[in-house]
Write a structure and sequence with these properties.
- The termini are far apart.
- Among the domains are: 255 residues, Immunoglobulin-like, CATH 2.60.40.1760; 137 residues, Sandwich (Immunoglobulin-like).
- Helix 1 runs antiparallel to helix 2, helix 10 crosses helix 12 and helix 14 packs parallel to helix 15.
- By secondary structure, the protein is an alpha+beta fold.
- 51% of the residues are buried.
- It has 19 helices and 52 strands.
- Strands 4-5-6-7-19-16-15-13 form an eight-stranded antiparallel sheet.
């Protein structure tokens, strides 16, 4: 046992006793020292390569598990199975301890301390890191009798701050996630920020941050289980500040560590507590108590669950694949996400119009109703960049059809509103009806063999939205009856096949001649199924009836609300794979050819929004948070979901504004707009047969209020767009928590009722009914009110519980952070026209009377403008009372076209100490009528500059007396 391990054991023993004279502690140390001398050789990367550990060592004896020596919070569940029958007997048969406890959530069945499952038998050094061979201990009881006897552990030093380690079976290929990642570097020796240590028997591994000695990963708690359909590993965490893991509805951004288990498996499931939702993102970030941050990706998309507990510790369980991990050392939260997206792919930059206000609903019923809603938006001059059609535009909910009876003339209407600056997006579902005659998508799909098959090679039939032909649907019957009587058989395209991609693109191409859409909205692509497994159920097989079912599906079978797990898909050009392994990848596989189709057809960046996502989805699509409810708790949880998807590298995200299910009261819809106006993806959408919730539906006063609110968003779109440029080029988040920016301020670690745009704008919305006061926390910085520019007084800062802000019903509290320059543009009713308006700058000063910021600008539509160099990047710096602009990048082609006829018109500076005597612009003194200083707010406003954006400038402020 190495000295650091002995000291760690000694530290733990001290915590469990009142002193070193405790007899149990002495006994524990004697056992540990004996173990160190005989069995527990600790290995590090300073050992000689190819060292072999003796394979004839007697079985390892676990340390005692007296309750006084193993605290309740250290228990790792050894019986996570759903079935509670014979739990104690099975627990003991697994070689585990059984001891009931009154601690809520703590397991009765738990691994003994030092429970050994594998031992190290071979260590090999490579230029990329280490390869270790592990043998399973023959005396260790099995969980389900499918144990892998020999494991390989590759530890790859991928960069200074990125580590890759994976456990796998080298003797037989197992499923690995087919999402392409950058190839393994072959850099030779790397000066890493992490150190690795491990013990030989039982095998455990620790990862330590060199700079602080903080242990980031420690598998000495729990056990390593690697069976064919049950894999599990546990690790201690350096702190309880755990964020991420999705897609789930979390009630707090910082995880509740009190024995919570969450399942991950793509599912058609409206948000609800402790239920797996539409996508799978097994990524977390942990903020260490010292203020550093690191992240871990579990690169496995099989059905899985994870348990967090107050040790703090984390246990992963999955039913397939391998144990594949990437660790990112940060050390700041932004560094962590940058390193993560460097691996899985940088987020895309949406087209500029996609940052405007989107309007949608399921249940417009007919074209006349849709036209009235759009007319209402025009009547009140409400910003309206994107209009949607849900499946009700289709004939009997059939993809690639138009309901001529109710939506005849939709194509012409789309053209008319596009001329007014409003884009159009339509929905497509993956499931294709199989009960039609002469239905080309099905007929050509069968001819080209594009649909998923069952285990016998026949089409796998489910039911989704399409109705049977030649029937009258009775919408008053209950759901199950409606599915049985009215829903047609449906088949599911296998988007991993090239033939399917070609067929899908061809169908989209043909339908664009009917409706000239600008983007596509992909729903139900988990894939969803209204019958469990298939119209005939699922056969008895190891995939649909695995020995372990994670905490998914609301307690149902693994195939609940989707297709049978033994369905057969294409993995790549040469290999088939079962749906058991491919399930959560379905939405990702559909999105890729959809993006290709839309960009080919429009010749522009376009927009694809998908419901089901996985790591890397943000590289080509946006996401909404699903079918939420119109209630106050869901409003609050939407902030958490938006923060989490920014961690996942999917920053173009938002919830349905005002909620999808049920009627939205006016007060809720008003306050939800005040949050949704600051979602990166701002869309108002609700469900069929609920009251309308478009801004005009609540009357003139409400509509005018929403118009003024959206004008704030549109004014700051240049800043939001620049944040997406940063995300695309650096991997930064767009929306982030206060913790993300002020990590060393522990008060921020649990704040999730406020959020930020980048580093500069703080949003503190009202999230409760009948409330006009909101409690907000302000970390140490200079903060300025958006509306008046007044600085928050110093005595109000760093109040642990926050301060109360007055928030009348039409006001959302907004504050700028000193030190960051925000580019703006005068708003209009859509981005087509707002992009033609004059620009401005907001300059809130920090404690040093300085500030800086950037403006990214391209044509807003073209594909790969950054990669092709067709953009401007301007830098603004305020220092020593002088504001200067410079070009960091100018377009490769037509350098003046993007800014042609555009001007900088106004500059507003917050936080000046005294009134200026002279303001000079490009060396010339401005007329006194061109600027104004308000002494009570200390805000200087400069207007009517009309300065070409293609030219740099200098603004100098002089004072009669030194400020």
């Amino acid at each position: 046992m190495a000295k650091d391990d002995f000291e760690s054991l000694r530290s733990e023993a001290e915590k469990k006793s009142t002193g070193w004279t405790n007899p149990r502690v002495i006994a524990l140390l004697l056992v540990a020292i004996s173990c160190a001398a005989i069995l527990c050789t600790t290995l590090t990367f300073f050992l000689h390569p190819d060292q072999t550990v003796d394979g004839d060592v007697p079985p390892f004896e676990p340390l005692p598990t007296d309750p006084d020596e193993m605290t309740i919070v250290e228990r790792i569940n050894c019986y996570p199975d759903r079935n509670a029958g014979e739990a104690e007997r099975i627990c003991l048969a697994r070689g585990c301890e059984w001891q009931p406890t009154v601690v809520d959530g703590a397991p009765y069945c738990f691994f003994p301390r030092g429970h050994g499952t594998y031992r190290l038998v071979l260590e090999q050094e490579h230029t990329w890191g280490m390869r270790l061979t592990l043998e399973r201990e023959t005396y260790t009881p099995s969980f389900f009798g499918q144990d892998i006897q020999t494991l390989t552990l590759d530890i790859e030093f991928q960069s200074r701050n990125r580590l890759h380690f994976k456990f796998y079976d080298a003797s037989k290929p197992r499923f690995e996630v087919p999402i392409p990642l950058p190839p393994r570097p072959n850099e030779g020796a790397i000066n890493t920020d992490y150190a690795i240590t491990y013990t030989a028997r039982p095998f455990t591994i620790k990862i330590t941050r060199k700079s602080t000695g903080e242990i980031l990963w420690d598998t000495s708690i729990g056990a390593l289980i690697f069976e064919d359909q049950f894999l599990s590993i546990s690790t201690r965490l350096p702190s309880s500040n755990l964020y991420g893991f999705g897609e789930s509805e979390h009630r707090s951004f910082k995880h509740d560590m009190n024995w919570r288990t969450w399942g991950l498996f793509a599912r058609d499931q409206p948000p609800g507590d402790n239920i797996n939702l539409y996508g799978v993102h097994p990524f977390y970030m942990n903020v260490e108590y010292g203020g550093n941050a690191h992240g871990v990706l579990f690169f496995n998309l099989n059905a899985q669950d994870f348990t967090v507990q107050p040790t703090p510790a984390l246990t992963y369980r999955t039913v397939g694949g391998i144990l594949d991990f990437y660790m990112f050392l940060g050390p700041t939260p932004d560094h962590v996400i940058q390193q993560y997206t460097e691996l899985v792919g940088r987020p895309m930059i949406p087209p500029y119009w996609a940052l405007g206000y989107h309007l949608s609903r399921y249940g417009y019923e007919n074209l006349d109703n849709l036209q009235k809603v759009v007319a209402s938006m025009r009547e009140y001059d409400i910003p309206h960049d994107v209009q949607y059609s849900d499946i009700d535009y289709m004939k009997r909910n059939l993809d690639f059809t138009l309901d001529e009876e109710n939506f005849g003339g939709l194509g012409e209407f789309v053209e008319s509103i596009k001329a007014e600056g409003t884009r159009y997006i339509i929905m497509l579902d993956p499931a294709i009806s199989a009960n039609e005659t002469g239905y080309e998508p099905y007929d050509l799909g069968v001819d080209n063999d594009v649909f998923i098959k069952d285990e016998f090679g026949d089409l796998r039939y489910g039911k989704v939205w399409p109705d049977y032909p030649n029937i009258t649907v009775n919408s008053s019957v209950d759901w199950d009856t409606g599915v049985r009587l009215f829903r047609a058989y449906a088949v599911f395209p296998d988007y991993r096949k090239q033939a399917t991609k070609d067929w899908w693109i061809d169908q989209i191409t043909k339908f664009k001649e009917i409706i000239n859409f600008d983007g596509l909205w992909l729903d139900m692509n988990e894939p969803a199924n209204f019958v469990h497994g298939s119209v005939d159920g699922c056969s008895e097989n190891i995939y649909d009836l695995p020995p372990y079912v994670p905490r998914i599906s609301g307690g149902g079978p693994i195939y609940d609300k989707t297709i049978c797990m033994n369905s057969v898909q294409q993995l790549d050009d040469n290999r088939k794979e079962n749906h058991y392994n491919m399930h959560s990848l379905y939405g990702w596989s559909q999105t890729i050819p959809t993006v290709d189709a839309v960009q080919q057809l429009t010749g522009m960046r376009s927009l694809v929004v998908t419901r089901s996502t996985v790591p890397s989805s943000g590289t080509n699509s946006g996401h909404w948070l699903g079918d939420n409810g119109s209630n106050w708790p869901q409003l609050r949880y939407s902030i958490i979901g938006t923060l989490e998807f920014n961690l996942f590298g999917v920053p173009h995200v938002g919830a349905d504004i005002c909620g999808f299910f049920n009627d939205s009261p006016e007060d809720l819809c008003r306050r939800w707009h005040q949050v949704g106006a600051f979602y990166p993806y701002a869309r108002n959408h609700n469900g069929i047969r609920y009251q309308a919730q478009d801004p005009g539906s609540y009357g003139e006063e409400f509509a005018v209020s929403i118009r003024e609110l959206l004008h704030i968003r549109y004014r700051m779109l240049p800043y939001l767009y620049t944040l997406f440029y940063d995300a695309h080029t650096q991997g930064s988040t767009v929306v982030r928590s206060l913790m993300h920016e002020f990590t060393h301020d522990s008060h921020t670690w649990g704040i999730d009722r406020q959020f930020m745009w980048g580093s500069a704008l703080l949003i503190s919305p009202v999230l409760e009914e009948d409330t006009t006061v909101v409690r907000a926390y302000f970390p140490q910085a200079r903060w300025y009110d958006y509306y008046e520019g007044m600085e928050i007084s110093v005595e109000n800062l760093e109040v642990a519980g926050g301060i109360d802000l007055v928030a009348p019903r039409d006001v959302v509290p907004l504050h700028f952070r000193g030190g960051y320059i925000i580019p703006t543009q005068q708003p209009h009713n859509c981005t087509k026209f707002s992009r033609l308006n004059p620009f401005g700058l907001i300059v809130p000063l920090d404690e040093s009377m300085e500030a800086a910021g950037d403006l990214f600008w391209d044509d807003g539509d073209s594909i790969d403008t950054v990669e092709n160099g067709d953009y401007y990047l301007m830098r603004y710096i305020f220092s020593r009372h002088i504001l200067t602009s410079s070009f960091i990048h100018v377009p490769t082609n037509h350098p003046t076209a993007l800014f042609e006829n555009l001007a900088l018109d106004d500059i507003t500076i917050y936080g000046l100490e005294t009134e200026p005597s002279v303001v000079k612009f490009n060396g010339g003194a401005l007329d006194a009528s061109s600027f104004e200083f308000k002494a009570e707010t200390k805000v200087l406003s400069v207007k009517s500059l009309d300065h070409p954006m293609t030219d740099v400038f200098t603004l100098a402020i002089e004072f009669s007396e030194s400020p």
